[in-house]
Design goal:
Length: 161
């Protein structure tokens, strides 16, 4: 159903290739659009999906990490959480941390886009712990730390991690 809709709206996967992973609300598919070069994701519950435009991908700093288009609330181990997709450009994400708590990431997709390897990860963060997270990354054999604003509810003042 998802792939049929993607074909109808012009975002069919390049070469028919896609990856399925367990997202916040069940199985999700992720792919690069053959026609537009956009990075797209959809699920059975959101068949229209969403795409990060090829232009936005190309403008992302390399190395760098950012939030992929949309996030949703979910119940994660009995706690209201934000299910977030991250896109790392030219680096690998190890984990996020805030206030001494580590949040593991799950790598779900990688593709060479706009001159850099773009890797998509999923992570769940508690709804009550939003703010600027520390992101542990690897650039080749080097470790580094970045900051990423995950104030998804747009409330203030969010926690500073």
């Amino acid at each position: 159903m998802v792939l049929k809709f993607a074909t109808e709206n012009g975002t069919a996967p390049a070469g028919g290739r896609f990856t399925e992973y367990d997202g916040a609300h069940g199985p999700e598919l992720i792919w690069v659009s053959e026609r537009t070069g956009d990075l797209c994701v959809a699920s059975e519950t959101v068949t229209a999906g969403m795409c990060q435009t090829a232009k936005r991908t190309a403008e992302a700093p390399v190395p760098g990490v950012d939030v992929f288009e949309d996030s949703g609330l979910t119940d994660h181990h009995g706690e209201s959480s934000w299910a977030i997709r991250l896109v790392a450009s030219g680096e690998a994400v190890d984990h996020l941390s805030c206030q001494g708590k580590d949040f593991p990431v799950l790598k779900v997709y990688s593709a060479d886009l706009a001159g850099a390897l773009r890797t998509v990860y999923t992570v769940a963060i508690p709804r009550n712990l939003q703010g600027e997270y520390k992101v542990a990354v690897r650039r080749g054999s080097e470790s580094a730390e970045e900051r990423l604003d995950l104030n998804m509810d747009k409330v203030g003042p969010p926690a500073q991690c």
